[in-house]
Design brief:
Helices cover 38% and strands 22% of the residues. It is of the alpha+beta class. Helix 3 (48-63) runs parallel beside helix 6 and helix 5 packs parallel to helix 6. The radius of gyration is 26 Å and the shape is globular.
Length: 381
């Protein structure tokens, strides 16, 4: 009878809806907790011990970046940086913060996380170097639903590499474990950088005049902008995978798209130190059209010569695969130019020669002219 009775109860429980069974489970847990069983932070999905171990890894990576001016080590409540103002009579701090956008989705698809940190650094430091500022230090924010120490270390390894390229220090950051906020295996990134420039050497476009020449410096590909359109074309419209080999690219789609954003700090600071650089535009979201006008006076416009530079195959591939018109390409992608600089006409050839000596691909792409009334500031010819 006892066995028969037990069987009957089991059958009754199994007949309950999943929702009722779930409720009974939590009631049982609540009663258990009321009787003295402790709930830990780890039970809630946050592993403090694992996070502490990761900090030790980060400390080693941070030490691999330039340390001039850095005080203390990773692990304090704030990063300390001592300014050396011996060569700066009227110092101005320049700051920038940014993320990587939906390029993160490519890293997730490929399960490759050692270069996305370079993109993060690039998006921040490229925005301050265009004003003539030398990057000093960088901080990062990495957030995951569940901390994956190996993945996090790989991300921060890329950040450290980017800092070395930019010749700035990784002085701190935040690694957040946030259960339920992100899909399993996914994460989000943001970065923050501070640089310094003497007030007299700020590059703000105020010296740009009619006749100035425009010189474009090559990008490494799509960089970190326009990836919502990239993904729609490649993975929705064309149904490609990241391991699909694209003959026009000579590599897989993933290999092309994961290529890190160029960091232009040493190139641009080297030019500005010796030559008259009067304006620099970082070609990011909005493409050439919307970024170049951010650095030229309202009384001027730019004439850009179509076909005056080499457009990498990835852009032709995207345009053809997505049937994207020319206007949309110009306002979405960098189309092969990561930076555009404005220089006096008499200095243009010397700037081109210097860029060539730096092994940079550079192109004379247009000029500054006068603007009549309210006509558009960008003219393609």
């Amino acid at each position: 009878m006892a066995r028969s009775l037990a069987t009957t109860k089991t059958e009754k429980v199994s007949a309950l809806t999943p929702g009722i069974q779930h409720l009974l489970f939590h009631i049982k847990k609540f009663r258990s907790n009321q009787m003295g069983e402790s709930i830990t932070y780890a039970d809630a999905g946050v592993d403090i011990d694992k996070a502490n171990d990761l900090v030790d890894v980060i400390k080693k990576l941070a030490k691999s970046t330039p340390r001039s001016g850095v005080m203390g080590e990773i692990g304090g409540f704030g990063g300390l940086y001592s300014l050396n103002l011996s060569n700066c009579s009227n110092p101005v701090l320049v700051s920038s913060t940014d993320g990587v956008g939906t390029k993160l989705k490519i890293a997730f698809m490929m399960d490759q996380h050692d270069t996305i940190g370079i993109d993060l650094v690039a998006m921040c430091v490229n925005d301050i170097v265009v004003q003539g500022a030398k990057p000093l230090f960088f901080l990062d924010y990495v957030a995951m639903s569940k901390l994956d120490s190996t993945k996090a270390a790989s991300i921060i390894e890329g950040i450290a590499k980017g800092c070395c390229e930019a010749q700035c220090s990784l002085i701190g950051g935040e690694t957040a474990e946030m259960p339920g906020m992100y899909h399993p295996g996914e994460y989000d990134l943001s970065g923050f950088s501070v640089g310094i420039v003497d007030n007299a050497k700020i590059i703000d476009g105020s010296e740009i005049r009619n006749g100035h020449k425009l010189i474009g410096i090559a990008s490494s590909g799509v960089h970190s902008n326009g990836f919502s359109l990239v993904r729609k074309i490649c993975f929705d419209a064309c149904d490609y995978k990241v391991d699909t080999h694209i003959p026009d690219l000579g590599k897989t789609l993933g290999e092309e798209l994961i290529t890190p954003t160029r960091i232009y700090c040493s190139t641009l600071l080297g030019l500005a130190r010796d030559l008259p650089i009067h304006g620099i535009a970082h070609i990011t979201g909005g493409g050439i059209d919307e970024n170049i006008i951010r650095v030229i006076p309202n009384a001027c416009k730019v004439k850009i010569e179509t076909g005056s530079w080499e457009i990498p195959p990835v852009f032709s591939f995207l345009q053809k695969a997505g049937k994207v018109d020319e206007r949309e390409m110009h306002r979405t992608f960098n189309n092969g130019l990561g930076m555009i600089i404005a220089v006096p006409e008499e200095s243009a050839q010397e700037v081109m020669d210097r860029l060539g000596a730096m092994d940079e691909k550079a192109f004379l792409i247009g000029e500054i002219t006068s603007r009549n009334g309210s006509e558009p500031q960008v003219e393609w010819v």
